[in-house]
UniProtKB/TrEMBL annotation, chain A:
Source organism phylogeny: Bacteria, Pseudomonadati, Bacteroidota, Flavobacteriia, Flavobacteriales
TM stretches of this protein: 178-200
Family in the record: Belongs to the sigma-70 factor family. ECF subfamily.
Biological source species: Sinomicrobium oceani
Domain RNA polymerase sigma factor 70 region 4 type per the UniProt entry, residue ranges: 120-164
Single GO term (MF): DNA binding
UniProt cross-references to InterPro entries, sorted A to Z: RNA_pol_sigma-70-like, RNA_pol_sigma-70_dom, RNA_pol_sigma70_bacteroid, RNA_pol_sigma70_r2, RNA_pol_sigma70_r4_t2, RNA_pol_sigma_r2, RNA_pol_sigma_r3/r4-like, WH-like_DNA-bd_sf
Annotated Pfam families: Sigma70_r2, Sigma70_r4_2
Entry-linked NCBIfam families: Sig70_bacteroi1 (TIGR02985), sigma70-ECF (TIGR02937)
Biological process, per Gene Ontology: DNA-templated transcription initiation
Protein name: RNA polymerase sigma-70 factor, ECF subfamily
Domain spans labelled RNA polymerase sigma-70 region: 22-88
Keywords linked to the UniProt accession: Membrane, Sigma factor, Transcription, Transcription regulation, Transmembrane, Transmembrane helix
From TrEMBL, chain B:
Domain FecR protein: 122-215
InterPro entries: FecR, FecR_C, Ferrdict_sens_TM
MF term (GO), any: sigma factor antagonist activity
Name the UniProt record assigns to this protein: FecR family protein
Protein FecR C-terminal domain span: 260-327
Keyword Membrane: yes
Provenance organism: Sinomicrobium oceani
Coiled coil spans: none
Ranges that cross the membrane: 87-106
Length: 201, 328
């Protein structure tokens, strides 16, 4: 945070190295975020370089009051949507085509072993509907708070919270699956015992 | 105890949004084994390092784009005159300069317009293979009946070529200037590797990677795959998706080294390959010959030598009449 402020100050003083330092720091997360809107990695990279170019162009009037990271994510979102608008593709169209494809091939019946669960947790997340996935990743990958996510995506805090709950509920559904398949006997026995214990204190 | 409230509390605590009260309310839920198990699992997931898939993006390329944008804008800023500083003298100078330039243009004629980089197109006929060295030193090997278009000099941001048919590429590594093969709706992007692209029509493409990493994308659907060594991808037109498989890339692509390779295939399949390789026609009706399996490879051999070798292996007799070979 403090480092970001110093970099912004140096950018205001026409220091291109500071701009590039900031660029290096946030490049991959911003590309990923842009990629969740524009799909093509080439375009995502264009979007990110455009945002930093705009910062450079406007460095004299640069006014970043809040946190710089949020500022960058908001800028990336706006620029991505501009690109989509220019190419006459709506994000909504893509959500539909995307939700039709299943990535991991996970089904409720398929039993998973532990190694698979480890590998597949990211695949499970890829299966979340786009908005939910973006929200989840902003929190999980970037550590943004509900309020910050709401600001970035211009939605209500309430929506962010609802989507996070749904995401967590979805993920925990795979927990029970992996548990049942892995320690079926022990688990059922212990839960039966717990229940008995509850009934007969 | 309510499931929905449990998840709401779990979400809040995991994301660091919970208040003291909410923390305590979650603890109540965790006294129950099932809620506790679920929560422990979630917590464990939460602590795991979430891997970022960053191989799709290249910081070098990003920096290159950014620097290019800044440089271009600075050049145009320098060129743009500051209107509020223009004096009469400057206007006069501009007028003189303008007249001078007009005079110069008038006298040097019209053929001074430099056209944007010229495109070259190279095609191979039936039975012909060609080797092309591209402006950046990369090499393209065209298989029979293929066409490659490429500029005399590549653009700064990308090395663009256009392919119809089958070609093998040996691309010089340059992360700042990706190499892109355009074929219809397909784009095959690499930074530096060896791979084969076979593009027949709008819905058929096959890509095989010998070394390095290659990305194949279908523009209209946004579908894409990343391939590495010995990966092969084909576009499934019905499903509008790529399907991938593992292959022996060296054997599949050694045609570019002028090696004709029969890897346990039937004589019938071998004849089809020979027809394409030498641009001839083979007539054979004997099922007994056609169904035999063979294994052989020929490096730079003449048609005659290949036929004699096959004759030795399978015991057929052949007669050549111009471009037609009849086998009994």
């Amino acid at each position: 945070m403090e480092q970001d402020k110093l970099l912004v100050e140096r950018i205001r003083n026409n220091d291109q190295h500071a701009l590039e330092q900031l660029f290096r720091k946030y490049y991959y997360p911003l590309c990923q975020f842009a990629g969740s809107f524009v799909k093509s990695p080439d375009i995502a990279e264009e979007v990110v370089s455009d945002v930093f170019f705009n910062i450079w162009q406007n460095r004299n009037v640069l006014d970043i009051r809040n946190n710089l990271k949020s500022y960058l994510f908001i800028a990336i979102k706006n620029q991505s949507l501009n690109v989509l608008k220019k190419n006459r593709i709506s994000f909504f169209d893509m959500e539909i085509s995307e939700s039709q494809q299943k990535v991991s091939g996970l089904t409720a019946e398929s039993a998973l072993d532990y190694a698979e669960v480890e590998k597949r947790i990211e695949t499970i997340i890829e299966e979340l509907p786009p908005q939910r996935r973006i929200i989840f990743k902003l929190n999980r990958l970037e550590g943004f708070k509900y309020k910050e996510i709401a600001d970035i995506l211009q939605i209500s805090v309430n929506t962010v919270q609802k989507q996070m709950i749904e995401a967590i509920r979805y993920i925990s559904q795979y927990e029970s699956q992996f548990f049942v398949s892995l320690v079926f006997g022990a688990f059922t026995l212990s839960s039966v015992l717990t229940r008995l214990h509850l009934i007969i204190p | 105890m309510d499931n929905h409230i449990f998840y709401e509390l779990a979400a809040k605590v995991l994301t660091g949004e919970a208040s003291e009260t909410e923390n305590r309310r979650l603890q109540k839920y965790l006294e129950h084994t099932e809620y506790r198990k679920t929560y422990q699992w979630l917590q464990q997931e939460w602590q795991k390092e979430f891997r970022q898939h960053s191989d799709e993006f290249s910081l070098d390329r990003g920096l290159y784009l950014l620097r290019k944008k800044i440089k271009t804008s600075e050049q145009t800023i320098r060129k743009a005159p500051r209107l509020h500083h223009i004096t009469l003298l400057r206007i006069a100078a501009a007028v003189i300069l303008f007249l001078g330039i007009s005079y110069a243009i008038y006298h040097t004629g019209q053929n001074k317009n430099i056209p944007p980089s010229e495109y070259l197109a190279i095609s191979s006929t039936a039975g012909e293979r060609k080797q092309i060295t591209l402006p950046d030193g990369s090499v393209a090997y065209l298989n029979a009946q293929a066409t490659l278009r490429y500029p005399e000099t590549f653009d700064r941001d990308k090395r663009r070529v256009e392919l119809h048919g089958k070609a093998f590429f040996e691309v010089r590594r340059n992360p700042e200037q990706p190499f892109v093969v355009y074929s219809g709706d397909f784009e095959t992007t690499v930074l530096g590797t060896t791979f084969e692209v076979c593009y027949k029509d709008t819905t058929h493409i096959n890509v095989t990677v010998a070394t390095g990493k290659v990305r194949v994308a279908h523009r209209t659907t946004g579908e894409r795959v990343i391939l590495t060594r010995n990966d092969h991808a084909a576009f499934d037109a019905a499903k509008q998706k790529f399907t991938t498989s593992e292959v022996h890339a060296e054997h599949l692509t050694d045609w570019h080294r002028n090696i004709l390779h029969f890897d346990e295939i039937t004589v019938k399949q071998a004849f089809a390959l020979i027809e394409k390789w030498y641009g001839i026609k083979i007539n054979c009706t004997s099922e007994a010959i056609l169904t035999q399996k063979i294994r052989a490879s020929y490096h730079n051999e003449s048609l005659e030598n290949v036929l004699q070798s096959l004759q030795f292996m399978t015991g057929f007799e052949y007669r050549q009449n111009n471009d037609t070979i009849t086998i009994k």
